[in-house]
Amino acid sequence: MVLSQNLPQKFQNKAGEVQTHHLKLLQYEQSTANTSPSPSAAASSPVSSSSVSTFSSASQTKHDLTVSAQQLHHPNLPASFHQPTTVIIRKDIHSFNFSDLELPVERPTASAHFIRNGQLLHDLYQRSVTGTPKPPTTELDDIFISVKTTKSYHDSRLALIVKTWFQLAKDQTWFFTDTNDPYFEEKTNGHLINTNCSQGHFRKALCCKMSAELDVFLESVKLLDEYSPSVDWYLGKPSISSPLEIHLDSKNTSLNKKITFWFATGGAGFCLSRALTLKMLPIAGGGKFISIGDKIRFPDDVTMGFIIEHLLKVPLTVVDNFHSHLEPMEFIRPDTFQDQVSFSYALMKNQWNVIKIDGFDLKADPRRFYSLHCKLFPYFSYCPHR
Q: I need a surface site. Which of 12, 88, 247, 326 has the fewest CB within 10 A?
C-alpha cells in the first residue's frame, strides 16, 4: 500500500508527529533493516525506498504499514526526514497513541535520552510562557540615590552622610553640590558632582541642582533602554495638609486658571520610577526643569510635583515612612525605626528637632544620626559595643 502525497492534512500532521516524537525509533528501524532483518521481515519482500510491505507478528493485534519516506514526502516534514528510511505508521491513525510504541531494550540510549530531554525542555518552555511570570525583584544596583548639598554643609551634613549611610551604597549614591572639593571627591570615589549652580537655599539654586540630578539619572538609565519600562510611580510624603494651589501667568488666557496638585517635600526625599522619569525626559530634561521652575516661581520639589501631577497626570503615592524636618521627629517610635525610609533633623528656635534614641551623648551626636545609624547597623567600628 502506498500513501499518496495528497494525503489529507490531518493525516499528514499525524505522520509529522510520528516523525518528530519517535526519531530514534526510525533510526533503529533503519539500522535493523540494514543489518539483521527480523524473521517476519525476512519472510516478506525486502523493504526498500521504493516498495511497501505489510507484515504481522504474533504479538501484534493490528496490521501496520511500512512506508518509505520518499513516498511520505510533504511540506510538514523537515528536509532531514526526506532521506530514504523506514517509517512505521498505524492504520488506526485517527486514535494514534504514542505510548503504544515500545522500543527494544538493546536500542542505543544516549541519543534517545537527548531526544527525550529535548522534548521535556520544550514542554517546560511551553508551560513557562503560558504561566504566571515571576515578579521582578529589586536589587541595590537598580537604585540611583542622589543627595543635594552645598559648600557650607560639606564639613557637617555631608561628612555625616559619607561616614554612615554612604558606606552601605557607595556605588549607587551621588552627591550634587555647588563647588569643587578634592577631599570629598576622594572620600566618595568621584561621586561628588559640582553642578556649578549658585550656593544657597533659594529657588534658582535648588532647581538648578535638581535639574542636574535628573539629567544624571536620565543619562544612567540610557544603559537600560533595552528593558521595557513597567509602572509610573511618584512616591513621597507632602508637608502640607491640602493640595497646593497656584495661578499660572500667561498671555494665553486659557491658561490663566487655578491649578492644584500635590508634591512630595524634598526634605523627606522622594522616589521616581524609571518609567516615569523617562516620560519626564522631553518635558524636563536637558535643563528644561529650570525653565519650568522659573515659570511657576516655586522651589525644586514643588516644580517636580507640578511636572508629575499636573503635566503628566501621575498622582503622588503617599508613603508615611518618609520624614522631613517639617514634622516632629520625636513622635517616630523607636520600634519602627527599621521600617522607615528617611529621617531628618533641624535646629529650630535653638532646639533640635531630632528622634528620641539612646546612644552617643548629645554633645557628641546632637543630630542623633550616629546613634540611629549604630542602632540599625551596629557592626560599624565607631559604634559602641553592645
A: 247
